[in-house]
């Protein structure tokens, strides 16, 4: 490649450490190269700082940055010739709704890949609700898409979310198991017994309680429609800002308090273990930090009714 430094990997190493050692540059300088998409491994752009290099791989550092994803609603987290991982902002649909032409994560990524290859395509393998932010993945060919869909539960080993709940959840951790059904109004309902619906399992861990709210981390064992939102509602602690399953008027952040912050999977082609994580949204932590010790009306009557 013209205007590129070519390096050859002789022993296993994380990409960031490799760049620092081989180029004699600082931690921040190495991260800057990755952020500007100037680093390729075997001709694929890599932005993941802890990407695991293997002997005989070729690392290239280009003089100029590659085309970046130009969108205020998405950030590119990782890309190779098979997959793309992005951080989606709240308010952006994953894919277009029927009979609508909204701007979507899918359309933004499609335009992005077509700038490099006119007839390039991408495929959706999982979705986030419009009002949920966080990590989601696309693939670049139909064979990889089918492979991921067929082996999703073996490949995707950890999907975690962070949420803010309305009320201070008393139990530090637990697991919610229920069966979900959807009514004619497209609203999901949760029952603790098998009623012919879909089995849904959510594990939760409290991070912090304050100001009448709970910051909680959630791990999905299954990934059903609106699963987290319905499970939290069924416990009587709905998500803050949830106009569909929450309490009317509880929207101090002007958004749904749900963010997909962690995604771990085995690469569908190389079988390498991939791990991505984004910080908790600052507004989540700010809400719990404000007015330390001040009580918030948790509406016990509402929770009692929900738990019946």
Largest sheet: 11 strands, mixed
Q: Counting H and I runs of at least 4 residues, what is the number of helices?
A: 8
| Mean pLDDT metric | 86
CA(first)-CA(last) distance = 66 Å
**What is the radius of gyration?**
22 Å
Low-confidence segments: 293-308
What percent of residues adopt helix (DSSP H or I)?
10-25%
Q: Strand pairing plus helix content: what structural class?
A: alpha+beta
CATH class of the largest domain: Alpha Beta
CATH fold node name of the largest domain: Pseudouridine synthase
| CATH homology superfamily name of the largest domain | Pseudouridine synthase
**Strand percent estimate:** 25-35%
Global shape = globular
CATH hierarchy: architecture of the largest domain: 2-Layer Sandwich
Summarize the helix and strand pattern as letters: EEHHEEEEEEHEEHHEEEEEHEEHH
Number of domains: 3
Strand segment tally = 17
């Amino acid at each position: 490649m013209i205007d590129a430094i070519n390096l050859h990997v002789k022993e296993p190493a994380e990409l960031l450490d490799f760049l620092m050692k081989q180029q004699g540059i600082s931690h921040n300088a190495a991260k800057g190269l990755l952020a500007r998409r100037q680093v390729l491994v075997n001709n694929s752009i890599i932005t993941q700082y802890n990407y695991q290099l293997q002997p005989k791989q070729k690392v290239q550092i280009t003089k100029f940055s590659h085309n970046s994803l130009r969108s205020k609603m998405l950030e590119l987290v990782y890309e190779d010739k098979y997959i793309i991982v992005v951080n989606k902002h709240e308010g952006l649909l994953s894919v277009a709704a029927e009979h609508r032409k909204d701007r979507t994560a899918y359309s933004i990524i499609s335009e992005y890949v077509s700038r490099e290859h006119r007839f390039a395509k991408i495929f959706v393998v999982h979705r986030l609700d419009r009002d949920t932010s966080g990590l989601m993945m696309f693939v670049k060919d139909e064979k990889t898409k089918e492979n991921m869909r067929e082996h999703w539960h073996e490949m995707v080993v950890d999907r975690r979310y962070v949420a803010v709940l309305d009320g201070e959840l008393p139990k530090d951790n637990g697991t919610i198991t229920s069966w979900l059904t959807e009514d004619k109004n497209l609203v999901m309902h949760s029952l603790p017994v098998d009623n012919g619906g879909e089995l849904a399992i959510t594990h939760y861990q409290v991070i912090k309680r304050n100001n009448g709210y709970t910051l909680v981390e959630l791990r999905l064992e299954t990934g059903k429609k609106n699963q987290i939102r319905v499970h939290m509602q069924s416990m009587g602690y709905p998500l803050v800002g949830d106009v569909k399953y929450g309490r009317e008027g509880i929207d101090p952040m002007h958004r749904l308090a749900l963010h997909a912050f962690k995604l771990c999977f085995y690469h569908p082609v190389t079988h390498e273990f991939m791990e991505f994580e984004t910080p908790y949204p600052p507004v989540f932590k700010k809400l719990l930090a404000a007015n330390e010790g001040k009580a918030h009306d948790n509406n016990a009557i509402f929770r009692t009714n929900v738990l019946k």
